[in-house]
Design goal:
By secondary structure, the protein is of the alpha/beta class. The chain contains six helices and 15 strands. The chain binds glycine (GLY).
Amino acid sequence: MFKNVIVRIPSKHISEGITSANEGKPIYEKALVQHENYVSALTKTGVNVTVLKPEDDFPDSCFVEDVALCTRKCVIITRPGAQSRRQEAALPDMVTTLHKFYDNVESIKEPGTVEAGDIMMVGDHFYIGLSARTNQEGANQMIEILEKYGLTGETVPLKEVLHLKTGLAYLENNNLLVSGEFKNDPRFSKFNKIEIDPDEAYGANCIWVNDYVLVPAGYPKVQQKIENLGYKVLVVDTSEFRKIDGGLSCLSLRF
Ligand code: GLY
């Protein structure tokens, strides 16, 4: 179960966020409303939500998931691979907040890069995507730190998506949403795989929070599959975040 969540209010320059999508620029005011609705949905799951102030100089800074890996033993502050995002991990209010929750605070060092959107937690095991943002050195450091605390990690090369969790979501109880390049990956054959159709690929980025699953609005087949598994579903509109390659998981740290 998760007790705590950290989020950051979107920057007023969110329209300048990094993107590979061709869907126009996010509308700041709409992003703020969607973010408030996201926080409301999380609150319904019983977690305490810490809301950090906007950091207007960092257009992607609402995607707090990338700056830290929160485990049940320690937190590991990352070193984002995207140059424009690197300083997000050192923002003082984030670092202070993580220290408030954790006695054991570790960090990824140069030349390692990691964005924790590339890391999927399954119990005490962590799948680490090797992507344009997370390099082998960063993954090696991450695994070494995890092992120091009795946790484990393994790498997963990825080619098609931005982050590992763009295409995978672990919903606990052995249930794994899989899309695209991960559908036939033998690493995931032991899971009860719920395959996401290509026309709803963005919908693979759901989050499990305390027996609820947050599902992005507009992906009815994904929603139905999750409801069929017996989860309580909370639908949240993330259309403005999608325009800059962001989704439900990117918007929070959950621990
Ligand atoms: N725009 C989110 C990212 O590229 O990290």
